[in-house]
Amino acid sequence: MPNRRDLLAGAVAGLTLASLPALAQEKLAVVASFSILGDFVQRIGGARVAVTTLVGPDGDAHVYSPTAADAKAMAAAKLVVVNGLNFEGWMTRLVKSSAAKAPVVAAAAKVTPLKEAGGHNHGHSHGHSHAGADPHAWQDAGNAKLYVAAIRDALVAADPAGKADYEANADAYLTELSALDADLRAAIQRIPADRRKAITSHDAFAYFEKAYGLDFVSPQGVSTEAEASAKDVARIIRQMKAQKIPAVFLENITNPRLIEQIARETGARVGGRLYSDALSGPTGPAGTYIAMMKHNISQIEKALGAGPA
Ligand code: ZN
User: Fold this and answer.
1) What tens digit of pLDDT does each residue of 205-228 get?
2) CA of 204 to the centre of ligand 1 (A)
3) Distance from Cα 251 to the centre of ligand 1, integer Å
């Protein structure tokens, strides 16, 4: 004969099982186009959201082919968060093909956009799909704060009952981003002024350059769609020698061959790997946006800071 405690335990277990699906359904389904936005949405949404990230760790969101699972996530979403500034060229078709009804919010909507190429890619043609805007606004932590505000407002609009949570999470995160911004500025100031220049394969750091004062030169344009021409590479190598650019950096989303070739032909050192357009996996060095920016600045400072040994 079951005793009272067993009966009670059974009742509690039954209750928990019955209420689980209901709790899961209460989470706001949000789709983020790429990993950095996925991190932002998770930080601000906390326990109230279930985030699906389309372009995952180390993925290249410039060139992406959505999957059937992506379309399914889009159809179920209550909110879709994209970068905007023509970063996700494949999104318009995905919205149509998935018959997604959720609002699509551009996190970069409040950012002052930079023109693509920033004057570095003379003679390089990028095609017309980018409409002249450089999409990599997240590389400035000040802009990341604008992203966070936009995502917070979109979450509140999609789920008004969570307003207090979203605002509290966003406030805490904005404080961390302000501290990050100050750390980045301080780190750049520790690098001798004549060594604040470097090479990356694609032009992902113009916002970083403008905010923090480090000159990045790239053989490839703001998108990874077009490959660098032999002429572009030759120009970079000349520029590197003339300006005594101390280091080249690999990127997590691009093929290392181009940068390795430039290093070989100039004798420049490879200063490590920068995370430009995607986070690393959760156990890697750039599993969150803040970890990514800290990793990048530590690589930059290590390669440029000390001067020739
Ligand atoms: Zn990019």
Assistant:
1) 999 999 999 999 998 888 898 888
2) 5
3) 10
